[in-house]
Amino acid sequence: GGRRNRGSRPRRMSGLVLLKAKVGDVDGGPELLLASRRHAVLGVARVLFAAANERCLRGMDRAALGRGSFFVGAVANSWRVLMQGLASLMFLCARADEYVRQPPSPLVLTAHDKPAAHPQQVHISTVGRNKMRISWVTDDRNTPSVVEYGESRGNYTASATGDQATYKYFFYESGAIHHVTIGPLAPGTTYHYRCGKAGDELTLRTPPASLPLELVVIGDLGQTRWTASTLAHIGGADYDMLLLPGDLSYADTQQPLWDSFGRLVQPLASARPWMVTEGNHEAEALPVVGFAPFVAYNARWRMPHEESGSASNLYYSFDAAGGAAHVVMLGSYAEFEEGSAQRAWLERDLAGVDRRRTPWLLVLLHAPWYNTNQAHQGEGEAMRAAMEALLYEARVDVVFSGHVHAYERFTRIYDNEADGRGPMYITIGDGGNREGLALKYAIIGRSH
């Protein structure tokens, strides 16, 4: 338990593709060093935000705002693919489109075999500067929504209560879905906790109070053997928080798959904050029979939307690393046009970011705004037209998306032209889902 020494933390970058953007000005865009696999499966991105460099708080062509480096890593889903070496490249678009793997095989998912009051599907998320939300499910609807916690094993010095709810979908009725907010918590600290006074003791670590901040970014996760491989890679890394830009369980109206997904990710999601936004596979709308969209998603994965002034769980924002990073999670499937609630909220949220104390500004959304893959061409265009200018004016650093089951990275860009003041766009859409990789590109050799 207790606080960790950030300076002594080992780096576990083995098996990662590293895109290293050096600090400083480079004509035409950032200088990129690519340590690549020849056939990379890019289902996971791992990001290290180094400490802010006071000498380059903002600039026309700043490659990064950090002392040291900005890393984006993508883990191959096959252990047999070996690192090919290091290449120093100056280029505008990177992608992996040659990898061939076997079709995703389903996992053998076991039912919950514990007592009805035993917590399952435990996951955590950040709430404000120094609090965490603990979410879990019990089959017993009389289990109390309470979390006991402390810095020593078995010694719970604090407790908190919350709320619970259920939902129905055709003949399916969920268990009790509990949400409890705990805190205040110390940053960079390990806590031991127990849910519902009946569960096993679990352990979480709070994010640090300052940079560096290390993130995992995955999209379109699903629950196949490739998903399990992705999760195994993540489990071997030392990181602070996971960001997921949509398409979690691939339940697609089969509600028991939400339960199996929650059990699948619990070992990781109960230990580090998982911050998610919705994808198309979360919608599950059947208006003919009265089922509104995102019912299961909103019930199970409650994010800090109210705390960030949002009226919807489909879009929100939060600070990390003591405010040195601000992360905006947008909703590709909530209204985003001029005059919409989401666009008005985004404008207010970005206006409240002080870039003098927040050098990193990140955005996540599901459907990519820039995409040369044949899959899902143009699906993010309307949202880009409605919102891109706001991101540009706020000088957003990086935009992550999923949806397309491939990896693609654009240099800093605005309105379809390379622009050193625009964000870098990264598609990271294959965490292992059942639909497989998107390997065909519609545009070859385009200078983005």
From TrEMBL:
The keyword Hydrolase applies. Keywords: Glycoprotein, Hydrolase, Signal. It catalyses: a phosphate monoester + H2O = an alcohol + phosphate. Its EC number is 3.1.3.2. One of its GO terms (molecular function) is metal ion binding. InterPro entries: Calcineurin-like_PHP (IPR004843), FN3_dom (IPR003961), Metallo-depent_PP-like (IPR029052), MPP_PAP (IPR041792), PAPs-like (IPR039331), PAPs_N (IPR015914), Purple_acid_Pase-like_N (IPR008963). Belongs to the metallophosphoesterase superfamily. Purple acid phosphatase family. This is Purple acid phosphatase. It comes from Aegilops tauschii subsp. strangulata. The lineage of its organism: Eukaryota, Viridiplantae, Streptophyta, Embryophyta, Tracheophyta.
